[in-house]
Design a protein that fits this description.
- By secondary structure, this protein is an alpha+beta fold.
- The chain is about 20% helix and about 30% strand.
- It has twelve helices and 40 strands.
- The strands form ten sheets. Strands 22, 23, 27, 28, 29, 30, 31 and 32 form an eight-stranded mixed β-sheet that branches. The chain has a five-stranded mixed β-sheet with strand order 14-13-12-17-18, with helices on both faces. A five-stranded mixed β-sheet has the order 21-20-26-24-25, with helices on one face.
- Strand 27 and strand 28 form a beta hairpin.
- The two termini are about 70 Å apart.
- About 40% of the residues are buried.
Length: about 725
């Protein structure tokens, strides 16, 4: 980075100096001055160029990159001065500028009017302008922040007056021209300052600062225009009748010329920037193009190549001046800023405004003798050093009136007092991370349990807690000078977690019904087909099965105290369907069995099912008219390998907890069958359970008939169950 320094530093201290920064598109200029009799005496200054294009059109794009240049300026100034710099005056470019005029009147106390009363009047006018702007549809949905204002006129008892201080009257009033920029522009400036441990002393608009230095108040009776031509933007201010009457901006400036050189000479941007600056000398310019060829071009030839870009820039600036000045050219135009130094630009502006070329002039540091005193040689003498001096002057003249102090989580912040602040405004301007205000609910856990989709919801987040002066508040709570804001960040909810033990609580059993009688059966858990320990967590999107430890036929043999061979003499159904020997029982399954040839009124089919160990596709023996034929029974959709009978079925209609339920597909039904038709898992019911059939207490094995009325009481449910 390049650094430039003035002569020997004056005797200065943190208490008697003003530090100003002009954060531009191409450079950052820092100035430290000592106030003396309404003027500033230069103590130290530095100019540092950005290493890369961290800003475009006056807008910060790369916050770390801009902070790097600001840090370099601050460090070098502190090294020369011998003390740290903490507070700084800054200005914002007029990108996306919005202006509002406002008139306000207030009654006085009848006492002599002092400056605090005048300042309160001005701030009330700014706040009214902000409210009027907020009531309009925001451009692009943006929130605008006031960055500066100008007093057009004061009024005492309805009559115009140049100053209110010291007078007495019944009412005071003011016409104020307030300027607003998108909150994102201001927030990015504040973020840069925070990264280099600086706090804002003053905030203004760049054309306000430039006109403060370049056009003294006694000149403002004339209709004049000031144009601050930087690298990315050209900011405009208009004066008339002793006041600043309008502000404007065009998003074109010196970079337009640089980019034209890039295209016409085939060089990189930095080389083009150097060539543009050398135009001032009027000599031949040597350069190396992008293919490595060394070239020489005369000043006249280069000016001829960039003439179209100069014409566009002059035309854009002149058009904006006319728009802000009611369609008429001003009496004279003052140009400041490094981008205005290209030879021929002021003459072109004069031609477009139909002014004599001597009426459009370039102002530099030599014209600032009334406001800025320099001992020795000025190392930044050109027009690029005018705006930073104006920023310091604005801070001097409004010192202590523009900012309020608010504590946020124990840290003091200085905020430009140009609006009615809420907690939300303050947190946005102080760089508080908005993500800390919104907690996230824990992640849900989704898996399949015994063929049914289960969702275990994550924990709910705890919202952020906001206190203002130790009282509960919210983002809309208004705050004022001296208030203390404490924000307790939101707490995220815990992710849903379920273990095998949660699904299979001690003593790890399930209940099955053997010929209608409940039997406690040892159970285990399978996750994606693998046995899982009780401590294992259920992973997302897995398949969980809670089932008997032993396969169905082994369990039945143990229950009947019979061998597997002896079971060949038995007919067996699971949930009225044939199950393969490898099937593992689930909670609530019904196992009906009988010796072959024995009648049972609950047996749902007239077909005798022969089930042999290891047989996956049982067949039906028809004892009716089609004796001797075999038929493969339709496969049951829920039990692997299971079959069901389609003969001798009937349908009945019952009422369950007030809702009508149709039972179909079987020859007879018992109470527990109802759970196949409603969204309630009987395994999830825990004592006490209320079961009634037609108003009387019922059991799971009671037979059902058409028109029955059933009531089932609710109880605690297992994790993930979805009862009514």
């Amino acid at each position: 980075m390049n650094g430039k320094v003035c002569g020997m530093a004056l005797k200065a201290s943190p208490e008697n100096t003003i530090f100003a920064l002009d954060i531009g598109t191409r450079t950052v200029i820092g100035l430290v001055a000592v106030p003396e009799d309404g003027r500033l005496r230069l103590a130290a200054q530095r100019l540092v160029e950005h290493r890369r294009r961290t800003m475009l059109d006056g807008q910060i794009h790369d916050i770390p990159g801009v902070a790097e240049a600001v840090r370099a300026v601050k460090k070098e100034l502190e090294g020369e001065l011998g003390f740290p710099l903490r507070y700084v005056a800054i200005a914002a470019a007029g990108r996306s500028l919005v202006t509002r005029s406002c008139h306000i009147e207030q009654e006085t106390s009848g006492q002599e009017i002092d400056w605090p009363e005048v300042n309160a009047l001005e701030l009330a006018a700014i706040q009214q302008a902000h409210r009027e702007l907020a009531a309009e549809p925001p451009p692009n949905g943006q929130d605008f922040t006031c960055v500066g204002y100008s007093i057009v006129s004061y009024y005492l008892d309805g009559y115009p007056i140049s100053s209110l201080v010291g007078h007495r009257g019944k009412t005071i009033g003011a016409d104020v021209l307030a300027t607003f920029l998108p909150g994102s522009v201001v927030n990015s400036l504040y973020t840069v300052l925070q990264r280099v441990e600086l706090e804002p002393l003053s905030l203004t608009l760049e054309p306000i600062a430039a006109i403060e230095a370049a056009i003294p108040e006694n000149y403002r009776l004339l209709n004049l225009a000031l144009v601050d031509i930087g690298a990315g933007t050209s900011d405009i201010a208009i004066t008339r009748d002793g006041a600043i009457t309008a502000y404007g901006m065009v998003p074109v400036a010196g970079d337009e010329i640089t980019e034209e050189i890039v295209q016409t000479c085939l060089v990189d941007f930095d080389t083009a920037e150097r060539m543009k600056r050398e135009l001032i000398r009027g000599e031949d310019i040597r350069y190396t193009d992008i293919v490595g060829m060394e070239n020489t071009i005369s000043c006249q030839d280069l000016l001829a190549r960039i003439d179209p870009a100069l014409e566009r820039l002059a035309r854009e600036i002149s058009t904006q001046i006319l728009a802000q000045n009611g369609g008429r050219p001003p009496r004279s135009v003052f140009c400041v800023g490094g981008g205005g130094q290209v030879p021929g630009l002021t003459e072109k502006i004069a031609r477009h405004l139909e002014l004599d070329k001597n009426r459009v002039v370039l102002r530099d540091r030599r014209s600032l003798g009334q406001v800025l005193m320099v001992d020795g040689d000025d190392q930044i003498p050109g027009p690029e050093g005018v705006t930073v001096a104006g920023i310091a002057l604005v801070a001097l003249r409004k010192l202590g009136h523009d900012f309020i102090h608010i504590m946020v989580n124990g840290v003091e912040h200085r905020l430009f007092n140009a609006r009615e602040f809420t907690v939300g405004n303050v947190l946005a301007l102080t760089g508080f991370n908005p993500r800390l205000l919104i907690g996230q609910n824990g992640k849900n856990l989704t898996f399949t349990l015994n063929g049914k989709r289960q969702v275990i919801f994550g924990g709910l987040s705890q919202p952020a807690r906001i206190l203002v002066n130790d009282r509960e508040a919210n983002m809309q709570t208004r705050v004022a000078h001296g208030d203390r804001i404490v924000v307790h960040p939101a707490v995220n909810g815990a992710d849903a977690r379920v273990t095998v033990a949660d699904l299979l609580p001690p003593p790890a059993t399930i209940t099955v019904y053997a010929n209608g009688r409940p039997v406690e059966t040892a159970a285990c858990c399978y996750i994606n087909g693998q046995v899982a320990e009780p401590s294992r967590e259920i992973p997302p999107e897995c398949n969980v099965e809670i089932c008997s430890v032993k396969p169905f036929f082994e369990w039945l043999a143990e229950h009947l105290a019979a061998s597997l061979e002896e079971l060949e003499a038995w007919e067996v159904l699971v949930n009225d369907q044939v199950a393969p020997p490898t099937y593992r029982l689930h909670d609530g399954d019904r196992v009906d069995y009988r010796p072959k040839g024995k009648e049972n009124r609950r047996w749902p089919v007239d077909k005798l099912i022969t089930v042999k160990p290891g047989q996956n596709a049982p067949v039906a023996e028809d004892r009716g008219e089609n004796q001797g034929t075999q038929e493969i029974l339709p496969r049951h959709p829920e039990i692997p390998g299971g079959n069901f009978s389609s003969e001798l079925t009937q349908s009945i209609t019952v009422t369950v907890n007030g809702s009508t339920v149709n039972l179909t597909g079987r020859s007879s039904y018992i109470f527990i069958d109802i759970f196949n038709y409603i969204d309630l898992d009987p395994s999830g019911l825990k004592p006490p359970i209320r079961l009634t059939l037609n108003g009387k207490e019922a059991s799971f094995t009671d037979e059902l008939h058409d028109g029955d009325i059933i009531e089932i009481g609710a109880s605690n449910r297992k994790p993930g169950s979805h009862g009514p």
